[in-house]
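Catalogue entry: protein

Sequence with per-residue tokens
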Amino acid sequence: MLGEPAVDPYLDVQYNARASVTDFEARMRLYRRLSDEAYAAVPHVEAWYGEGDGELLDVFVQPARSAAPVFVFIHGGYWRALSKEDSAFVSPMLHAAGAVVVTLDYALAPAVSLSHIVDQVRRAIAWIHRNIDHFGGDPQRIVVSGSSAGGHLTGMVLAAGWHTEYGVRAEAIIGALPLSGLFDVRPLLHTHINGWMGLDLAAATENSPSLHLPERATTPIVACYGALETAEFAAQTRGFVDAWAGRGGPATLHAVRDRDHFSVVTELTDADSLVGRAALHLLGLGPHARH
């Protein structure tokens, strides 16, 4: 269509996460199998955080304790695929360590815009902040994480300027663990991904976390990507960490050895993995907790 940005062949390859592995479908089946096992093993409830399409979340509760730290996980899928049903696998290890774990859904593109998805995720965080004490969680100790598109949405939770409108204390978010995230989405204008996202420059700018940092960043972040990922995905994470640190925020960067775009998130199943240790540290749990 006249006026649409041209596809850049280099960027199109770099941001084609699915094509970066040879067994994409097998990875998705693994997510679902591990998640089915998690649902069978960990007590949980499903709740609505809003009345719109996809506005559901699962809370993996801590019925025997109160004021547990809360780990919120936002799924990836380039904003058009996957769900909380593919994400429950992050819950068993963190739940066993003492966290309340929340996995959330959002409506998918192309039926809705990226701005709509960002709004949904922020409303989900607001719901968690208001209600998580009923499930054993501490509303003042929330860690937000997500993989790929979920990493981007984690960045949009860290972005400035929305908390007061949604009734969330920014200080309640005590840490963030974005995995293989997208923090400047403007390059996607020049890829096939924009075929389902329908972004223009204004929307891409509005929804790029790196362009909306707080004046003074205080939330600790640990940002990870797989060492086997493409150069552009690696640069996205490095750039965000540098920008966050440039605003004074505590920021740690990890290129996770022998992991790719889809396997780095599975480290959350292992308390002794690099990503697992980072999650426990941010939550203040386990032998690697903050002191």
